[in-house]
Amino acid sequence: MYRKILVPLDGSETSEAVLPHAAALAKCTGARITLLRVITQPMYEAVFGDMTLHRTSAAPDTMNSRSHAEGYLQRVVFDYFENNDDAVAYDVCAGPVAETIMEYAASIEADLIAMSTHGRSGLARMMIGSVADEIVRRSNLPVLLVRPEE
Q: Does this model's pTM top 0.70?
């Protein structure tokens, strides 16, 4: 049923709560997992709102963020997947988070997006927004959401 599962991570423990679920699902279905870390440049995004121009020509800050994000994903692979290179891949992209996740899922022909939700509601959700909510509303793929235990 599932061949490719995309697991976006934001670097927080909350986002990692989905990993045991995604790993179990991949083991049952034989799917390959791709971990994705989307990095942003807050100043550029605040001014222009769209980071698509920066995907090919990364600024120095993005390069530092990229190496930090790659190190983070390598640690996650080691910690959660016993460094199983056959079952898990990872990548780092820059851009608006929800849009980049959905574009990346399409580019790898993912069958499922599995992610954690921070569980914000009310005013916090209105002020900060919800990447998970945007993906659920806009994606044409199934989305598995895991709400971490408090």
A: yes
